[in-house]
Amino acid sequence: MTSSPVFPTVPRTADVVIIGGGVMGTAIAFHLAEAGVRNIVVVERGELGRGSSGKPIGGVRAHFSDPLNIELGSRSLRAFRDFPERPGADIRLDTVGYLFLLATDRQAADFEAGVRLQNSLGVPSRMITPGQARRLCPYVSTDGLVAAAHSPADGHARPALVVQGYARAAARTGTVLATHTTVTGFDTAGDRITAVRTDRGRIDCATVVCAAGAWSAHIGDLAGVPLPVRPVRRQLAFTAPLSPPAPRIPFTIDFSSSAYFHNSDDGLLFGLADPAQPDGFDTTWTAEWLELFRDVVRHRAPALAGMATAGGWAGLYEVTPDHNALIGRSAEVVNFLYATGFSGHGFLQAPAVGEIVRDLCLGRTPCVDVGPLAADRFRTGAGTRPESHIV
């Protein structure tokens, strides 16, 4: 890969500067490069994929309640399946399905409506009984379960491999990956950005794309574009190697508590969204969180509560007020585009969003109408996008 530490400064000019070298930034770079754009610079303050993209759970799904999220998930799933050929990398995709465990009649009714919508859009999800859920995932206790929702085409992949695959493909056509480079401001003229200022030099440019994840509000402030994104810590853990090995199970989610687990190498991965977690950029992993997970899971999957763990980590969700993405072009700064605020869905939607932002940059009509995801929806009184299938 062409990485800027080889050079003392960043390139002086670019057609497109992408801020953020995670899965979103590299996906956008790949799709632009594939479309023939040759003067692209990706600016990343650390190493590629070491921010939020370095620490997600890796889930890929089209099992959502909002049509836009279903479309973005479905299109991305197809791209993940095709990843070995385009752009050309093994991402360890495992299509084990998603399994949502539902404990109330209201949850079941909401998911039934979601399944009907998903089926109408080509997603092969289904409602199943608690007994069928246990057969899919033997760890599950059916005590108190009303129903479950199963989406067999979903699964999980390795985010770091996706970032590397996109970055290497983009670099082969000349994209510069300016790692260890921090954006410090913008130069403007009228309603346009004319240059991106960094701690390693200035880049004159025609278009800027913010794909900075949890750090996007700061970039938006520098550009004069409000991006309502807040950082929230999420933690996970890995079991020690299991003997006998764990059965191959779906990505299983206890919807009431948000506790989830799936296969990972020779053990399991555990996760849980702590509802008391304050906003902030702290990514310290805590043993107290693990005890919270054990307390929650003891009822729904008792065997997991006693499993030994071999470490864990914490990463950041980039959360918006309605837990849906911000995708679009600023009305005030007309050459500033953004793809951020995915609220935990960024990795799984990245391939489709890479295509969409490519088309927005090139003045094409995108494959999916993302007008309802414009960042100004919170200021103009436009309707927000409610999404109930949030993990």
Automatic annotation (TrEMBL):
Pfam annotation, one family: DAO
Keywords: Oxidoreductase
GO molecular function: oxidoreductase activity
Top-level taxon of origin: Bacteria
EC number(s) on file: 1.-.-.-
Domain FAD dependent oxidoreductase: 15-360
Cross-referenced PANTHER family: FAD-DEPENDENT OXIDOREDUCTASE DOMAIN-CONTAINING PROTEIN 1, SARCOSINE DEHYDROGENASE-RELATED
Protein name per the record: NAD(P)/FAD-dependent oxidoreductase
Native organism: Streptomyces massasporeus
Lineage start: Bacteria, Bacillati, Actinomycetota, Actinomycetes, Kitasatosporales
